[in-house]
Specification:
Strand content: 25-35%
Shape: globular
Low-confidence stretches: 1-25
Number of helices: 12
Largest sheet: 7 strands, parallel
Strand order of the largest sheet: 5-4-3-2-1-7-6
Radius of gyration: 26 Å
């Protein structure tokens, strides 16, 4: 009798329709909208890739496309930007050397800009003269890099901007004419360059009604059946793409953080470069949150990766050669990442990546089942206990890796597999954790600011607002961590203050602890110790409506 219930439900669903059957029918009738599950599994196993933003704009050492004067009033006049290609001769470009740099860095795939918003094509296109073959260089960079990448044993993909600020049909919003050009170029890229592993579209406010992505995806997958496609073409496609921020913990849908090694997507003179330690931390936090990490470099006008960037990549690769077995192809969790670090797993083995011992709680929440052992990646034992209080781990301070101490936690064979353990939130050491919060707007949601969970948000309906934490009594603290949500390209907080008020003081007796003009997703500020009961984040001005997930305080 019970076995007939699911069948009865399915028959009713088929008869009357349901969201589930609609999705199934869509997948059956339009299979080109999604990559096959085994392809997504393989793509997630790649873990770490190289993004390359490059075109003639590198001659000026400015940001790619966005420095063109129109349509967003950049500082470079159109007639200057659009003619840079006439002087573009990257005579020291060596596709094999770039592919080897990526391989030495521990990267497993490369994605390069075939065409960015500025409209210049880095490949030989029959649909335009504004391409690499019209430069003095006259060599198909995409073709050379595609061949070198695959020869190095890496996957190859291309970035393609549907918007084209150089093409008259796009500027006129003549979509019928423009789509002939767009479809023609995508067909070229999917036909003339061998196997394509992934396509990274970049729509910028346009999508389903302009580019007819269902038709586009059908053409693409007929030409490249094993390709995976990102979510920036008006459809969800195969994976999400948080930009310039480590994505929130998500193991339900594939995603990939794309981030620059410097401060600019393309090569920039005198740019500030991330350190190897920071790059490793971002890779670990991304993998431990469930995503792939696509780290961008911008070749110089010579065609070479800047030596400073190449040196960072080489050092990341040195670290991965020793520690990559605890990262590549593994899945996030069960412990959710936080200031202490992150975890990944395979079977009944969990790897703890401890990035900050100071932020590691005395006890991680207990795991279901029995912990058989805790060792370092080298196999040397680590001190541990596991009981009703939780999992406690320790390594002598002198033996801790200053970048990332990795511990291998092995569960008993009768314990649940790590993939079956519900994600576990790790409490921080914050003195603000779970403390009450009041706010000038959206007061009910303000409690999410101290809940230790970046997936919950406080969203203001005003660009001037405040949120205030009540610590219960005067407490001493010397560090604040704030996580602001939003897209990297948005103008978010433009002016803010961090204020403190002692217990017993009048309501207007605030002391300014810090002030600034930007916050972002990883704001951490240390200062001389402050003693106060009330701490207020005051937003004086913001380009977008303020969105914050966490405000935490530490002694």
């Amino acid at each position: 009798m019970h076995l007939l219930r699911p069948l009865r439900f399915l028959l009713l669903a088929l008869a009357f329709g349901s969201p589930f059957t609609a999705r199934v029918a869509s997948a059956q009738q339009e299979p080109w909208l999604k990559a096959r599950p085994e392809l997504m599994q393989r793509w997630q196993d790649l873990t770490f890739g190289m993004f390359i933003h490059w075109d003639p704009s590198s001659l000026l050492g400015v940001e790619i496309s966005w420095h063109r004067q129109s349509p967003f009033n950049g500082p470079i006049p159109d007639e200057v930007y659009d003619n840079l290609y006439r002087s573009f001769y990257p005579g020291q470009f060596d596709a094999k050397a770039i592919a080897q740099t990526a391989k030495d860095a521990g990267m497993r795939y490369i994605i390069i800009t075939a065409k960015h918003h500025g409209g210049f094509s880095m490949f030989d296109s029959a649909h335009t003269d504004y391409d690499i073959m019209s430069t003095p260089f006259k060599r198909d960079i995409i073709k050379e890099l595609a061949e070198a990448t695959r020869a190095a044993g890496l996957d190859f993909g291309f970035y393609y901007s549907q918007p084209d600020w150089h093409h008259p049909a796009f500027l006129a919003k003549d979509w019928e004419t423009y789509n002939k050009f767009l479809y023609g170029q995508i067909r070229e890229l999917c036909t003339n360059y061998g196997k394509i592993g992934m396509i990274f579209f970049d729509g910028i406010s346009y999508g389903s009604s302009q580019y007819r992505p269902k038709e586009l995806f059908k053409m693409i997958r007929e030409l490249q059946p094993d390709v995976v496609i990102n979510n920036r073409c008006g459809l969800p496609a195969d994976y999400d793409t948080p930009e310039q921020v480590v994505g929130a913990f998500n193991t339900k849908r594939p995603w990939e953080t794309c981030m620059t090694l410097g401060t600019s997507w393309s090569w920039k003179t005198y740019d500030k470069i991330r350190s190897p330690a920071e790059s490793i931390r971002l890779l670990v936090m991304t993998a431990g949150s469930g995503g792939n990490f696509l780290l961008n470099v911008g070749p110089m006008p010579t065609g070479q990766i800047e030596p400073r960037q190449a040196d960072v990549l080489r050092k990341v690769g040195d670290w991965l050669r020793v520690n990559g077995s605890a990262l590549y192809g593994l899945r996030a969790g069960p412990y959710k990442p936080a200031g202490w670090g992150a975890s990944v797993h395979e079977g009944r083995t969990i790897y703890l990546h401890i990035l900050s011992w100071a932020d590691l709680p005395d006890f991680l929440p207990a795991l279901p089942g029995k912990v058989v052992s805790v060792t370092r990646l080298s196999g040397r034992p680590a001190t541990f206990s596991h009981d009703q209080r939780g999992l406690r781990v320790d390594v002598p301070a002198s033996e801790r890796d200053p970048v990332n101490t990795i511990l291998k936690v092995t569960l008993d064979p009768t314990s649940p597999a790590a993939k079956d353990i519900k994600p576990i939130l790790v409490p921080t050491r914050s003195i603000a954790r779970l403390k009450p919060v009041t706010a000038s707007t959206a007061a009910d949601a303000a409690k999410s600011l101290t809940d230790d969970d970046p997936a919950t948000l406080w969203v203001s309906d005003s660009r001037q607002c405040w949120a205030e934490i009540d610590l219960g009594s005067d407490r001493r603290f010397s560090r604040i961590d704030i996580r602001e949500e939003g897209h990297a390209w948005e103008t978010r907080t433009k002016s803010f203050e961090i204020l403190a008020r002692a217990e017993g003081s009048s309501a207007d007796q605030w002391t300014t602890v810090e002030r600034g003009n930007s916050i972002g997703s990883t704001y951490t500020k240390k200062f001389a110790p402050v003693t106060a009961r009330y701490v207020r984040l005051k937003i004086n001005d913001s380009g977008a409506l303020p969105r914050f997930s966490e405000i935490q305080l530490y002694e």
